[in-house]
């Protein structure tokens, strides 16, 4: 693993941000999109969640993120963890290309969709949970929780969506939706009942910030991308 012990806990406030990321971690992906949208230059330190039982569990990385998960972002002399907290930090310190709408009701809608995905769906189909569920049951388990959550997301979008999740501006909700759709496809969820989710996902496919953040464009993506 190429994480040097000198990298932490001290972080140089002037150095380029470093994102500890895994190519198909949906939580890392959210942050990559946010950084790209805000045009914040950053370096990636890949953390393999599967190599040698998972580099996220090694002593050095536990110093960076005691939750032993990705992402972690070293920025402005701080080490930040948890993708939603990181996106809010970026929003508050780099207000260019806002990821939250001005209107308070629309902001609430963005947060609602973010919360459904980041608390109500993704943690239930995360690697650590699926390991406990077991190989035999994991597909059905993931499908169950993604379907349950997508039903609620689709309902929310039926009143909030314009071109994107909330109105016509890209927001944190879109940063969370696209990686979750990828996960849904990975677990072969039938997405036909969610036409608004599919339309927004298609809309964002061509966006350069989203495209650059895609797992297939990550330095640690294996040459043959499985389950794309
Ligand atoms: O290559 C792997 O199978 C390991 C881990 C992941 O995909 C990441 C997740 O745990 C899913 C997620 O981010 O939602």
TrEMBL record:
Domain GST N-terminal: residue ranges: 15-98
Pfam families: GST_C_2, GST_N_2
Catalytic activity, reaction form: 4-maleylacetoacetate = 4-fumarylacetoacetate; RX + glutathione = an S-substituted glutathione + a halide anion + H(+)
GO molecular function: glutathione transferase activity; maleylacetoacetate isomerase activity
Gene label: MAAI2
Family listed: Belongs to the GST superfamily. Zeta family.
Main location: cytoplasm
Any one GO biological process: L-phenylalanine catabolic process
InterPro entries: Glutathione-S-Trfase_C-like, Glutathione-S-Trfase_C_sf, Glutathione_S-Trfase, Glutathione_S-Trfase_N, GST_Zeta, GST_Zeta_C, GST_Zeta_N, Thioredoxin-like_sf
Signal peptide positions on this chain: none
All copies of domain GST C-terminal, residue ranges: 103-223
PANTHER family membership: MALEYLACETOACETATE ISOMERASE
Record-given protein name: (Mediterranean fruit fly) hypothetical protein
Residue stretches spanning the membrane: none
Residue ranges of coiled coil: none
Co-factor(s): glutathione
Record's keyword terms, sorted: Cytoplasm, Isomerase, Phenylalanine catabolism, Transferase, Tyrosine catabolism
Protein's pathway: Amino-acid degradation; L-phenylalanine degradation; acetoacetate and fumarate from L-phenylalanine: step 5/6
Superkingdom, taxonomy of origin: Eukaryota
Gene3D superfamilies linked: 1.20.1050.10, Glutaredoxin (3.40.30.10)
Location relative to the cell: Cytoplasm
Gene Ontology CC: mitochondrion
């Amino acid at each position: 693993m190429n994480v040097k012990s000198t990298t932490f806990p001290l972080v140089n406030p002037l150095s380029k941000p470093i994102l500890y990321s895994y190519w198909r971690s949906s939580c890392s992906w959210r942050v990559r999109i946010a950084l790209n949208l805000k045009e914040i230059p950053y370096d990636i330190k890949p953390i393999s969640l599967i190599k040698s039982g998972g580099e996220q569990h090694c002593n050095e990385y536990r110093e960076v993120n005691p939750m032993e998960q990705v992402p972690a972002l070293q920025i402005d002399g701080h080490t930040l963890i948890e993708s939603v907290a990181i996106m809010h930090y970026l929003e508050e310190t780099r207000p260019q290309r806002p990821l939250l709408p001005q209107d308070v009701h629309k902001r609430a809608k963005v947060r609602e969709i973010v919360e459904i995905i980041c608390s109500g769906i993704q943690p239930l189909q995360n690697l650590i949970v699926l390991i406990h569920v077991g190989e035999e049951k994991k597909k059905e388990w993931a499908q169950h929780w993604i379907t349950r959550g997508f039903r609620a997301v689709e309902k929310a979008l039926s009143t909030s969506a314009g071109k994107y999740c909330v109105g016509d501006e890209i927001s944190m909700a879109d940063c969370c939706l696209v990686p979750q759709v990828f996960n849904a496809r990975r677990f072969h969820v039938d997405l036909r009942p969610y036409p608004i989710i599919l339309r927004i996902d298609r809309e964002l496919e061509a966006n350069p910030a989203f495209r650059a953040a895609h797992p297939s464009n990550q330095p640690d993506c294996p040459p043959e991308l499985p389950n794309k």
